[in-house]
Amino acid sequence: MSDQPEMTPQASATGPVIEARGIVKRFGGAVAVNDVSIAVPTGQIHGLVGENGAGKSTLMRVMAGILTPDEGTVTVQGSPLEAGSTRASIDAGISLVHQELSLVPEMTVAENIVLGATPDTNGFIDFKEMKRIGSDALNEIGVNVDLDEPVVRLPMALRQFVEIARAVARKPKVLILDEPTATLTPAETDYLLDMLKRLAEQGLAIIYISHRIPEIFAICDRVTVLRDGQRVTTVDIGDTSPEHIVDAMVGRELKAELATHREEADFGDVILSARGIEGEGVNGIDLDVRAGQIVGLGGLVGAGRTEFIRAMIGADIRTAGSVMLTRNGETKHLRGYGQAIRSGIAYVPEERRSDGLALTMSVADNITLPNRGVLSNLNVLAPSKIVSFSKALAEKVGLRPPKIELLVGDFSGGNQQKVALAKWLGREPDVIILDEPTRGVDVGAKAEIHRLVRDLADNGTAVIVVSSDLPELLELSDVIHVVRDGRIVGTLPREVADETSVMTLASGGSGLIGA
Amino acid sequence: MTEQPEAMDVPGRVAEDGLEQSEFNLVVWLSSRGIFVFTALLILVAAIFIDGFVSLNNITDVFNRAAPIGIVAVGMTFVVITGNYLDLSVVAQVATAAVVMIAVSNESNLFLATGLAFLIALVYGVVNGVAVGVFKANAVIVTLSTTFIGLGVLRWLSGGSIYFGPQDGPIRQFGLAKLGPFPLSMLVLFTMTILLSLVLNRTTFGFLVKSFGSNRAATRLAGVNTPGVVIGAFTLSAIGAMVGGFVLGAFSNTAVSAMSTGYDFRALAAIIVGGTSVFGGRGSVARTLLGVVFVSVLTNIMVLSGLSFGVQQMVIGALIVAAVSADSLARRAAG
Fold it and tell me: Which long-range contacts (CB under 8 A, 24 or more apart) does A476-480 make?
């Protein structure tokens, strides 16, 4: 422990083990966490809930010393935690179990459990001690795994438990878990929840982040709801209900519809029809999209929405299912990605920086890439065509500044997203698939992109939108399919869809909340 | 930029006009523009301080020595721009082309030799390209292995012999030919540079090479046959190596399997010093030519100053480390 003087009077035995006060964390101009305070005493399981992007993970990373807050302090047993130092937070007794597993796949279970604190004598690994620590940690959480097994050979669920064993092996005072049940089956989830209760009874302070409302009500003593980076409420679990929590998470009143209301009759025939799509994380999805219709895919991160569309169009491997594209009465089976693109499908991927755009190339170059066929004669590029073509598209999407010769990487996120859209609009696609079309985009650009999407649909383009931004999904979609565990678990027409109904289906809370 | 969580897409420091602010950065500047200044300075310094640098014989000699490496390097530039580091197998390709040229034209004629050498180049391009582009194998290891295979076949078939062309044959005449004061090899180097520059800058293929090097995923998701791009790049590298082998063989009118030792590294040196990024996506054929001039002039200065071969090697090695580090620093600084 640090030998700094105790700064706060909370250091008594009954005070909180960990306390965050007035935490503010900004990224660039965006405020991810805004003035949030939270305190957890020994033996308490404190739930932390909120929609995607509400600031839960950022807050936890601040509390675990990974991120330095812009304002506010974190104290552990009354002593301030050195900000931005993972080492200091481990020494202070905070263990974080990440959302993404952070094990080294090639190393054994025992090696992973002691990773970062490998016992040694004079620089030589003490294998005996390593195994002792490993088996103690596994015993503590009541899981039986071969310590010498490489982690890569374990099923996903066991890896999650090894991750928790590693956190426990450090003898923490505070255990923070970020969506630990994302990859677990219901039985495994129950086991994990029981285990956490036991750990809390032994005196650990636990902060439990989850989207899944039933889990929160199963184990938590108190719950804090975050929305848009701010704390909405902190209540004892006995004083609240699942309905209240979902309302607090969702919060906003439904905005008046900006769009002109679009009627079922305005849509054309079914243009894209997918049947029984299976692939990595996709367990049999059917989907029909009509010309001029905007179909939204809702669900939690990791539910399989992106995996589904990628498997459907062949960008990733499709293990089963068929896709038919019907235009002008002519039906085509889509078998591969290249064919899908040539047949009139456009796909704007989720990760614009890694998958959507070549950041070190100009706007014109990026627009040329999918349109090179019409911008060249006999495979020789036609620079004058490229300039006029790119300028027209840059203008159409409202690129600012409209300078097509600049590198895409020099533009702001919103303008980059406009380029990612523009490059595909040049092909005048029949079906356009937008995965998180406005993530990390400022409000102005977001409205412009929404307008573009609606214009496309009004002109007969079939649109599929994947979005974790609920208001966006509700505003754009004519119909919303909610995906969970690689399946469509519910379909909500525009008239009945609201944030609560989508979230309920997405989080599997239908048993507790009447849908 | 500081470290940020990957899950959040951060707008960054956005200026009023929608562009991210960028400040002047010396490393970025040196990495992108430095070669022009350094080459000019080097030539200036050599002209003033080194006796015998500015003489027709010396300049002819510099270009005669630079031409074959330069031709190999302009071809290999395509592989580097795809982000596949380099084509080590040019060592085997250059020697094979030279041996085929002299040995086959001794037995029959130069046309047959050229045709055969061209076919061999295609085989190299396709084998390297398929392994790297289709099977996604590491380019360094693949081309190191095809070097072994190629040199192995060559030594086995030639029995390690040295081949000499006839004293009055077309190969010898080509090797001695001059256009005014300049050797023909120099003309070939410039022609190849112009041709390959056109391919890189004007054709859809060249565009896709740059695009693939800049972002593989985005290029694939645009519906591009990306393995074809990689195969094409390795094939152009092989054609450059074949022409380079012809020029090298003609220069000495001899050919032997060991004649092109070190060509892989020297070609890479020219490419990197010229400012083509080993991360792919950025670079040009003209820059490679400039890199060739820089490395050749530097070597020439060291020779004229009486520095030993060991010292020369050391200096060139240090130069590459500096150029590659600058490339990497510039990339990070540019975000």
Answer: A476/A259, A476/A294, A476/A296, A476/A450, A477/A294, A477/A295, A477/A296, A478/A262, A478/A264, A478/A267, A478/A293, A478/A294, A478/A295, A478/A296, A479/A293, A479/A295, A479/A296, A480/A295, A480/A296, A480/A297, A480/A298
